Ribonuclease III domain-containing protein
Amino acid sequence: MTAQGTTTVEKSLQKVLEKLESARKMQDDWMKNGINFVDLYVDDAGGDWLAEWGKVAAEDLEVDRITSIDVEAIKIAIGFSNFQKTQLLEIALTHRGDTKDLRGTSFDSSVDRDVKYKRLAILGSAILSAVVTDYLYRQYPQLDRDCISNLKSQLLDKNKLSEFAISLSLQELSLQSVHGKETEKSEYKRFLGETFEAVFGAIYLECDRDFLRAGDWLIQNFISKAVVEKISQKSDLIEGTKISPQIALKRRRILGGEILEAIAFDYLYHRFPEGNVSQLTHWKKMLVAKEIFPKEFKTKLGNQYLELGSNFSRTRDWLVNNFIKTAVAELVEERENQLN
C-alpha cells in the first residue's frame, strides 16, 4: 500500500477508536446515572430528542462506512498497477451529488470536487467518443457514416457504459449513495456511465494524453467485444457494402468531427484548469460561432488526421497551433475588454 493509502487507513482507524471511546464513556455514564444520563448529552431532554438523535446517528454511521477509496484496488480493477496520478482516480470515484460532506478524502478542495469530477467526465466522454469513432472507421471500412454514428451511439449509451463500469466493480469501489437515498434505476445507470467516463478521463491523463495508449486500453477491454456483439446482430452492416467517393467523404467528415471535438475539449480542459463544464462548453460553442474553421473543415481535418498516420498528438498540435490557440486567446481578450 502507498504512503498515502497508509495515512488514510490510519486516520480512519483513529476515527473508529475515537467513536469507540465516546461509546464507552456514554455507557459508563448510563450505568452511573441511569436514565438521567440523557441530561449529559441532550439539551432538550424533554423533547423529541430520541427520534432526531437516531436519524443523525444513522446518517453519521452511513457516511463513516465509506470515507475513502481503495486506490490499490482500483489500480488492479482497471489494470494499471503503476498508476501514478492517483488523485485523478480519487476525483473520478468520490463524486456524490447528494451530500455536502466528503470526509476522509485526501485531495485538495480549492476547487469544488464536483466541478473536478464533471470536468474529468466531459474530457473522458470526448476522448472516448473519438476513440470509438476512430476504431470503427479503421476496423470496419465497409461502414458508412450513418452506421458509424449509430454504432457509436449504442456503444456510448449510458446503459452500455454502466455495464462497463460494473465490469470494473466501480459501483463497489466508488464513494456514492452514502446516505442510503433511493435512486431510480435509470439515474443510477446514468451515474455509473458518467463515472466510467471520468475514470477513462483519468486514464487518458495518466497516459500523458496519449490517445493511442488510452484508446488501446478501452478497445481491448470493452469496445472490440461490444462492437462484435452489435454487428453480429446486424451482419448486413458489413456485408456487400460498396463505399462510393461520396460515402468516403462522409466517413472522413464524421471522423474529423469527433477528432475536432476531442481536441477542443482537451485544449480547453488544460487552458482553463478551474473552469466548470458549463464554462468549457460555452468556450467550445464560442469557438464554433467564431467561424475560425474553413468550409468543410471536418472533412479536411479527417484527411489531415489520416495523412498524419492517425496520430492524435500530431493532429492536436497542428490544430491547436494553427486555429484553436489563437482563437481562444482572442476570445479571452474580447471578454476581458467587455468586463473592463
